[in-house]
Write a structure and sequence with these properties.
- About 40% of the residues lie in helices and about 15% in strands.
- With about 240 residues, it is an alpha/beta fold.
- Strands 1, 2, 3, 4, 5, 6 and 7 form a seven-stranded mixed β-sheet that branches.
- It is globular, with a radius of gyration of 18 Å.
């Protein structure tokens, strides 16, 4: 089982196809079977959530957060991804899918949703809030950017989550980190260090969500064990 997990993390980091996994790892068929099985029965999320709670406790925080930060990022889809599950982001001019994590103040993923890039941020935000509320009952506040609108705020009220829209200062030029909200931008950047997540290569959105959980599980395992951090571009 440990070697199968190593194979999944290797594929996440390098982006290789199943058949190109190194020969010193388990056979591709066994790794693929475990990935699908753990995705379908929720084992990937269970592992991820247990690691997240350990990291939070190690930082002197409660096991589950009270505040989350929401954001979305549009990604190009690979050639083999079915057109029925993709779309075009009208504002960013990106054809493919849209990935949206909800992270805590440490940048750890609480929930993630993957949908077609054509889905409006309002619909995306409501789906992400639903998943956050289903996963934990402790979240009472969510921070979002100006891409989300009153629909998301009203939906949060029904879930007991106060949604605050953080507006950008009109005088700012270029990228200016916003207090607390910058954590989700940091997490998006970390995800892009995993080549499997640079493009959406999965046939179904739920498969892409599982890939995010494995990537962040890799990051959290490194934090817990004190292993070296992932090498950044150009390092």
């Amino acid at each position: 089982m440990r070697e199968i997990v190593n194979a999944l993390l290797y594929q996440s980091r390098t982006g290789c196809q199943w058949d190109y996994l190194p020969h010193d790892l388990p056979p591709p068929g066994a790794v693929k079977y475990s990935f699908y099985k753990w995705r379908d029965d929720g084992t990937d999320e269970v592992i991820h959530d247990l690691l997240r709670r350990q990291v939070r406790e190690g930082r002197g925080r409660l096991t589950d957060p009270s505040l989350v930060v929401l954001d979305t990022r549009s990604l190009h889809a690979a050639a083999g991804v079915p057109a029925a599950t993709t779309g075009r982001d009208a504002s960013k001019k990106v054809p493919g899918r849209k990935r949206g994590p909800a992270v805590d103040v440490l940048g750890l993923v609480v929930a993630v949703v993957v949908l077609a890039a054509s889905v409006h941020d309002n619909a995306f935000g409501t789906a992400l809030l639903d998943k956050v509320a289903a996963g934990t009952s402790t979240v009472t506040k969510a921070l979002v950017d100006q891409g989300f609108e009153k629909t998301v705020v009203d939906h949060g009220v029904g879930l007991g989550i106060a949604v605050e829209i953080i507006e950008r200062n009109p005088a700012d030029r270029g990228f200016v980190p916003q207090p607390i909200r910058w954590r989700v931008e940091q997490t998006n950047g970390i995800l892009m260090l995993h080549r499997r997540l640079v493009r959406d290569c999965e046939h179904r959105p739920v498969w892409a969500e599982s890939r995010v959980y494995w990537a962040i599980s890799d990051v959290m395992a490194r934090r817990l064990t004190g292993a070296s951090a992932l090498a950044r571009r150009g390092a």
